[in-house]
Design goal:
Elements (H helix, E strand, L loop, with lengths): L1 H13 L6 H13 L6 E6 L2 E6 L6 H6 L7 H7 L5 E5 L5 H10 L4 E5 L3 H13 L5 E4 L2 E2 L4 E8 L3 H4 L23 E9 L1 H8 L6 E6 L5 H6 L2 H5 L7 E6 L10 H10 L3 E4 L14 E7 L1
Parallel strand pairs: 3-4, 3-9, 4-5, 6-8, 9-10
Antiparallel strand pairs: 1-2, 7-8, 10-12, 11-12
Helix pairs in contact: 1-2
Length: 294
Amino acid sequence: MLASKTARFFGKVLSTRPLDMPDMIRRRAVEAISETPSGLATTHFGDVRFDIDMDLHAIARKYYFHTHEMFLETIFRRYLPAGSTFVDIGANMGYWSAFALSLVGTAGSVHAFEPVPAFFQSVDRLRVLNPAYRLFANMAACGSGPGTLPMAVVRPSADNYNNFNTNIGSSSILPGFLDHEKTLTETIDVEVTTFDSYAAARGLDLDAIGLIKIDVEGYESYCFEGMNALLTKPGRKVPLLCEVLTDPARHPKLNGPAIVGLLQRFGYRCLDATTLKPIDVGSMKFEENILCVE
C-alpha cells in the first residue's frame, strides 16, 4: 500500500515540473525504501493511469517508480508541448507513451508501435485506461517495407526476470541479434509496416509531430529506410530520439557512425542525448542515445 500511494503521489508531482537533481534523488530514495508490488500495479503520470505487469521483468520496478532513464525527460518536455504528436517506435510496455500522453494532453496524440504481444497488451491497456486521451496502439514493427518477419523475443520467464543483460527490451527483428542468448529467447512472426505508409494512411500532419522515439534493438537502419518521406520533407525537421547500436563485427547494420552520417545528409544535427553535445562518431559505444534535430 505504501508503494502504491507513493508512486501515485510522485507521478502527479514530478511529471509536471522540469526535471532537476532533487527530483531524481527523491524518486530513487522512494524506490530504495519501497517494496516492489506484484501483479498489475498502478502508477500515474499526471492524470494518465499506467498499469504495469510487475511480473514481466525487474525493470518494471523502474517504470513503477519513474526512475527509468530520467535524463530523457528533459528532451520529452522540450519537444512535446500540449496538443502535439508523439511517435513511439518500439514502445515496449508503454512507459514513454504514458509519459508523453501526460505532456501532449487530450488535444494531442500518441502513436505507439510494439510488435511483441505481451508488451503490446500493456500499451493497449494504457489506451483503454485513458479514454480521454488519443493513443493509437499498433501491434506492429516499423521497418523498410511491409510484410511479416521473424523476431527473436526474450521470454518473460523466471530465468529472465532479473537478467538485465537480456532484458525484455532486447527483442529484435535483426537476424542473429540474439543468437548468443538462444536459450532465453523464442521466435515469433510479427507484422512490419513503414512509418511513411502508416503516416499516409492515418493522414498524420508531420509538422505536428513534436518527437519520434526509436528503440528497436539494432533494427534502426531498416526503420529509417521506411521513413524517407519524413526525413526528406521540406521545412522543419521532425526531432528524432533514437537508441543506436554499434557493433559491425556482429552485424553490418549495427553501424552507428553510418546512421549518424545518413541523418546528417538529411540535414540533421546528431547530439548525445545525455549531454546534448554533438555526438563523437569516433568514440561511439555499443549503445548510444542520440537526439537528432535541425
